[in-house]
Structures are given as structure tokens and as C-alpha cells.
């Protein structure tokens, strides 16, 4: 049982780390001379590296909000898991923990979808998606799978 709990916590923390890295690191869209993320657009012109704030459009703010909400809900889910681990009666399910983690996965999915759809009109065709964008999409199934595991999991002695 201890090995199962450690595996679940490792899965949860791995998804949370991916969410944090994908939200903070500046590599959602990359080019040879520029990088963009949810917060800044950085370019190199004539050897000078310059970062400007990201676009203030509604869609980028929606993506920012979705990614921040996914991180918050994932932290809350991890906290609830440890609380329920010690307070839940034998045979009880971790439904609240699972619900928060599934919501976190849905938030990151919505943020990724909005960014993918709206990115075509904002970013030139010569640029490609960066590793932070890919990490966000990898974090989605990790968070969803851990949420489903929490819902299925019953507390034993």
C-alpha cells in the first residue's frame, strides 16, 4: 500500500512540476531569433536580447488564467490528498482530491486548446511550438490520470 501511495504522489508531483515549468519558462513558441511564452515575447535583434510583455489580448489572458488555475487546483488537490489520507475513514474514496485534480487537468486542456487555436493568427508561420507548450500537453494526461486514480482509490489500513 505504501508503494502505491508513493507512486500516486510521484505521478501527481510530476504533473505539477510539468505545469509549473510550462507556465513559467519562456518557450511556448520558438524561432531562431525569438521566444514567446504566456508572459513575455523575447527577441534578438543585432545581438541585442530584448523582452517585451506579452500581448494583452483576451485570449492570452484566458490561457494565463487557465494555466494558473490548473497549478492552484493541483496544489489544492495534493494538499487535500494528504489531509484525506489521515482523516478519511477506512474504505472511503478520495473523491474531493480526484475532483480537484480532474479540474486541474481540464483547465490545462482548455488553456492548451485556446493557445493552439488562437496562436495561428498571432505567431508567424516560420515559428514553431516550443518545449513548454509540449510540456503543458504532457501535463494534461498526467493530471487526468492521477485524478481518475484518486477517484478510484479507496483508503485501507
Automatic annotation (TrEMBL):
<comment type="similarity">
    <text>Belongs to the PMP-22/EMP/MP20 family.</text>
</comment>
<keyword id="KW-0472">Membrane</keyword>
<keyword id="KW-0812">Transmembrane</keyword>
<keyword id="KW-1133">Transmembrane helix</keyword>
<feature type="transmembrane region" description="Helical">
    <location>
        <begin position="94"/>
        <end position="117"/>
    </location>
</feature>
<dbReference type="Pfam" id="PF00822">
    <property type="entry name" value="PMP22_Claudin"/>
</dbReference>
<feature type="transmembrane region" description="Helical">
    <location>
        <begin position="129"/>
        <end position="153"/>
    </location>
</feature>
<dbReference type="InterPro" id="IPR004031">
    <property type="entry name" value="PMP22/EMP/MP20/Claudin"/>
</dbReference>
<dbReference type="GO" id="GO:0005886">
    <property type="term" value="C:plasma membrane"/>
</dbReference>
<protein>
    <submittedName>
        <fullName>Peripheral myelin protein 22-like</fullName>
    </submittedName>
</protein>
<dbReference type="InterPro" id="IPR050579">
    <property type="entry name" value="PMP-22/EMP/MP20-like"/>
</dbReference>
<feature type="transmembrane region" description="Helical">
    <location>
        <begin position="58"/>
        <end position="82"/>
    </location>
</feature>
<dbReference type="InterPro" id="IPR004032">
    <property type="entry name" value="PMP22_EMP_MP20"/>
</dbReference>
